[in-house]
């Protein structure tokens, strides 16, 4: 009787064990919701899904759930709305320039909280210094570079040849750019422009495009603390005037130019040169049916471009287990081999020198030199314009750019108005 009872007990225990194991496994699975912005062309979502799947295979206790949230602007609105509702994502890729806003909203935790080992420290120190300028504040690291970029100049080599320009030597300064744009502009018999020499988009990221010219003019728009701006600096006014004058000269489309349609205009030969993110490189490589080149942004008093793009952030209201899982994912996805693949798949800049030292990216750079232009521009790059209450301050500058380009205001008046508005917004942060 005792033996039979014991046997029944073992059978029941085994059954209970079998029934319990999946539930236990489910309880041990840490879910990481991951808001991701899709803001440029190329197979971005497919690449992110692939990374998430590979990570989960290697880390079966963590479930990464990418949620594609629209543009950068839409993604931060959704992330902060969820944060205020108490249900934020665990991690998100948001603009590096959103750092001050996320800190002010008490929405994120410093990455330093998770850096414990020598390997962790070496990893955090491996990112390009230019990208860390928009990732640190107050002695803490708040974001980890991932989808990072600079602005570069794409140009149609065939149209350069037609215009008698050297297809292997893009304009190196602003005077050369204006002269080349004049040669590259084509009109019909009635004087209607069929092809502009240069096109610089001014919607969405007008402030960023202006920074290409202010950087060339050796003007810095904001202080490191994000509490003061110099939008009405004479060097900034001169930079915006240059942009306006391209339109007045008829070598650049008049008025406001759409960010999203600029690559299409380039593909359709409506413009011979365009400024846009290096994150569009794979898009251009796939869709330009002509030989194209990529050049650094033309200089004036100096060379350089603002950096741009997105950082990983970890949200404060996520559980400690979720935060640790997110850190593990962030560290995994930014390792040199994966950063190299990401750069090749998208055109974004690989975020560390070690990534460019991988066999895959070394070979890719030899076979496709345009992939190295943005990296080579990093030593002279500056931090992207970023302040506290960044979206409102940036809107003031974007509005100024568009007012000047449409002729509603002079560049000097537009930037003076933007300065007054920025001073008003930033008063409480000084």
From TrEMBL:
Keywords: Signal
Superkingdom of the organism of origin: Bacteria
InterPro entries hit by this protein: Bact_solute-bd_prot1, SBP
Annotated GO CC locations: periplasmic space
Keyword Signal included in the entry's annotation: yes
Signal peptide from the UniProt entry: 1-25
Location(s) in or outside the cell: Periplasm
Keyword Iron-sulfur: no
First-listed, main subcellular location of the protein, grouped into a coarse class: periplasm
Family statement: Belongs to the bacterial solute-binding protein 1 family.
Name of the protein: ABC transporter substrate-binding protein
Lineage start: Bacteria, Pseudomonadati, Pseudomonadota, Betaproteobacteria, Burkholderiales
């Amino acid at each position: 009787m005792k033996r039979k009872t014991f046997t029944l007990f073992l059978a029941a225990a085994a059954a209970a064990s079998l029934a319990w194991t999946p539930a236990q496994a489910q309880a041990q699975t840490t879910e990481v919701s991951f808001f991701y912005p899709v803001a440029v062309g190329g197979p971005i979502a497919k690449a992110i899904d692939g990374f998430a799947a590979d990570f989960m295979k290697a880390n079966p206790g963590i479930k990464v759930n990418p949620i594609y949230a629209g543009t950068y602007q839409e993604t931060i609105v959704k992330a902060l709305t969820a944060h205020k509702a108490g249900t934020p994502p665990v991690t998100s890729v948001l603009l590096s320039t959103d750092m001050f806003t996320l800190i002010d909203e008490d929405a994120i935790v410093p990455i330093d909280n998770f850096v414990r080992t020598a390997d962790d420290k070496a990893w955090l120190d491996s990112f390009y210094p230019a990208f860390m300028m928009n990732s640190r504040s107050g002695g803490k690291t708040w974001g980890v570079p991932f989808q990072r970029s600079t602005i570069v100049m794409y140009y149609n080599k065939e149209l350069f040849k037609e215009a008698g320009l050297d297809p292997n030597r893009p304009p190196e300064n602003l005077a050369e750019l204006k002269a080349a744009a004049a040669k590259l502009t084509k009109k019909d018999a009635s004087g209607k422009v069929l092809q502009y020499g240069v096109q610089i988009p001014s919607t969405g990221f007008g402030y960023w495009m202006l920074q290409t010219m202010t950087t060339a003019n050796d003007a810095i728009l904001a202080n490191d603390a994000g509490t003061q701006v110099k939008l009405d600096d004479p060097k900034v006014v001169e930079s915006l005037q240059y942009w306006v004058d391209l339109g007045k000269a008829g070598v650049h489309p008049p008025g406001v130019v759409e960010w999203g349609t600029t690559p299409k205009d380039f593909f359709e030969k409506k413009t011979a040169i365009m400024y846009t993110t290096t994150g569009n490189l794979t898009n251009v490589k796939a869709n330009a049916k002509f030989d194209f080149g990529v050049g650094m942004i033309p200089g004036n008093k100096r060379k350089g471009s603002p950096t741009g793009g997105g950082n990983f952030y970890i949200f404060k209201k996520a559980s400690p287990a979720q935060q640790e899982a997110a850190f593990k994912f962030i560290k995994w996805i930014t390792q040199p081999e994966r950063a190299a693949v990401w750069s090749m798949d998208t055109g974004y800049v690989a975020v560390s020198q070690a990534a460019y030292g991988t066999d895959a990216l070394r070979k890719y750079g030899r076979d496709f030199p345009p992939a190295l232009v943005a990296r080579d521009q990093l030593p002279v790059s500056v931090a992207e314009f970023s302040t506290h209450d960044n979206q409102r301050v940036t809107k003031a500058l974007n509005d100024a750019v568009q007012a000047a380009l449409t002729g509603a205001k002079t560049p000097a008046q537009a930037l003076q108005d933007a300065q007054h508005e920025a001073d008003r917004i930033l008063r409480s942060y000084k």
